[in-house]
Amino acid sequence: MVLEDTTAAIERAKALAETGTRKILGIAGPPGGGKSTVARAVVADLGDQARLVPMDGFHLAQAELVRLGRRDRMGAPDTFDSAGYAALLQRLRSDEPVVYAPEFRREIEEPIAGAIAVPNTVPLVVTEGNYLLLWPEIKPLLDEAWYVETDEELRVQRLIQRHIEFGKTPEYARAWVMRSDERNAELVATTASAADCLVRL
C-alpha cells in the first residue's frame, strides 16, 4: 500500500486507533527522511489517542560509546540497545497501567530514562526510527510498519542543517553526514520492502 502524503498517513493511523485494542505503529526510514515528521503529525492529530515513543531513546550513552570505540559511528545499528527497545515494545503490548519510555535529547546527545509516560488507555503507540525493519526482533512486535520515502537531495540537506543547528560547523556537519549518516541510510534503504505501507513525502 502507498500513502501519498501526510494526510493519507493520518487517516490510516486513525483507523488503527479505532480498532478497540492497542496497536503499535512503526515508522521507519533513513536519517533525515521525514519519519519523525510523519510520526509527530500523526500524534498531534490524534491527541490523547496516540503517544510517540521514538527508537532514539535507546541510543547508548556517550560514555558507553566511547568505551566501546563507537563514538565516531554514533547512529549506526550497533550504537543502540536494540534488545532494550524490543523489551519496551513487549511491555507496551501488555496490560501494565503505565509504561515509561526513554527519550533522546539532541541538545545533550544523551538518552533520558523515564521521560515518556504511556498509559494503557492510549490506543495507538507510534514508534519511529531508522532500524525498525532491520532488527528481526522488532517487526513482529509492530501491528503495522511504514517506510517513509522522500527526495534524496532534500533529505541530505535536512541532515546537514540539523547538525548545524545543534552546534556543528557546516564543514563538520557535511563531513559527518556523508561519512556516517549516508552509510546508515544505504543500509536502511535495503529494508523498505519489508514495510506494510510506503509513505511518500
Describe the overall structure:
The chain has about 200 residues and is of the alpha/beta class. The chain has a single domain, classed as 3-Layer(aba) Sandwich (Rossmann fold). The protein is about 40% helix and about 20% strand. It is built from 6 helices and 8 strands, in the order βαβαβααββββααβ. It has helices at about 5-15, 35-45, 60-70, 80-90, 150-165, 170-190, and strands spanning about 1-5, 25-30, 50, 100-105, 110-120, 125-130, 145-150, 195-200. The strands form 2 sheets. It has a 6-stranded parallel β-sheet, covered by helices on one side. Strands 4-5 form a two-stranded antiparallel sheet.
SSE blueprint:
Blueprint: E1 2-3, H1 6-17, E2 23-28, H2 35-46, E3 50-52, H3 62-68, H4 82-92, E4 98-105, E5 110-119, E6 124-129, E7 144-149, H5 152-165, H6 170-189, E8 197-200
Parallel strand pairs: 1-8, 2-6, 2-7, 3-6, 7-8
Antiparallel strand pairs: 4-5
